Structure formats: C-alpha cells, structure tokens
Amino acid sequence: MPAVKAAPTVATRSHLDALFAKIDPARARVIFAIDATASRQPTWDMASKLTAELFDSAAAIGGLDIQLVYYRGHGECVASKWLSDAKSLASIMSGVACHAGETQIGKVLTHAKKESARKKVGAVILISDACEESPSELYNAARELHDVPVFLFQEGDDEHVGQIYGQIADITHGASCRFDQGASQRLADLLKAVAAFAAGGVKALANQNSESAKLLLTQLKK
Q: Under 8 Å CB-to-CB from 139, ≥6 apart: which residues?
C-alpha cells in the first residue's frame, strides 16, 4: 500500500524528533482523519468550525495534540505536522478543497500504526460517508493497530458502510456512530467525547455525562 504523502507543513524527521522530546507525555495525541472527496465539502466545513471544541474539551484534562490527515482525488492522502492549538489546525483545514476520488481508509490506518510506533497515539477519529475498499484488507489493517482505538463517524445511513465501520471499531476497541449533515451539534458532542477519552480515559469520558459520551461508553465497554 502506498505511503501517506507528507504535506508541505510536515517538518523534517530531526525536527519532529526534537519536538516530540519536548511534548508533555501527559498530552494526548489524536489523528483527525477526514474524507475530503467531492461530496464531503459540507462536512469538511462543519468539522473545521468544530476543531476548537476538541482542544477546549481536552485542555481541562491534560491537553491535546492533533495531526490532520485527509484523503481526496486519485490517491492523494496527506498528513500535517502535529498541532497543539485550534487556530493552526483551522488554518490548514481552510486551505483544503475537496476533490473527487475514492476512499483511502486503509492508508489512514497504516499511517496511524506508523505514528503510534514512534510515539503513542491515543485515538484515531475518522469522518466519512463511504467505503470503497476491501473490508477484509481494512480489518487486517485495523488489527495491526493493537491498542489504538478508532472512532468512526459516518454521515448518512448506508448500512453496508455502517457494518464496515462497526467492525473496524470492534477490532480496535473504539466506536462508530452516525450523524446527519445538518447535525453539527451531534458531531461536536461526539468529537468532544473522543477528545475527553483520549486525554483522560474512560473516567474523563464518563464525567462528560452527555448523550454522546454515554453512547461511546456503551460501545467501549463491549
């Protein structure tokens, strides 16, 4: 499987190693992956507006570092550097336009494995509405993640996609949920719940006491 391409914002290996050495080990690291194929522009815009809430939710617990990964077009899959503030993440997202293409969830999972091998990744968040890849290959990639839970947020109600997302969530001990394009508050609550879990574990998630937190807790405890 082709490697994930580095965005212009990605620093050199030596710079990243120096950066990681300075990061407080209590800070959670979350890979925030979004489907940026043509149909995803409305959800991309929604997620861009909600990024500040991810950081705000985790700040009170221990902080959060996020790496943005997006795929679009014909084989383009890009990873940003690790970001520690909402403004930087929003700035990168605002410069990305969605292009037609097929899903590349497998690349996201493979990239997450590599990143976590270098320094622990607390969770992977994926926002998409489709899956055009071999389910068995995705399940094998998910098994390689070991202790990195994947939280998959599906826009729409495609049952086949939902089954695949649900299986990936089960394999990685994560969760999968659906939301509608107009349900920005539901997506916001789901993202905040994952941020809380990544930063403070199940206890922090339970302390949120929101419907989204309860939904994720139910799946995590399976």
A: 167, 168, 171
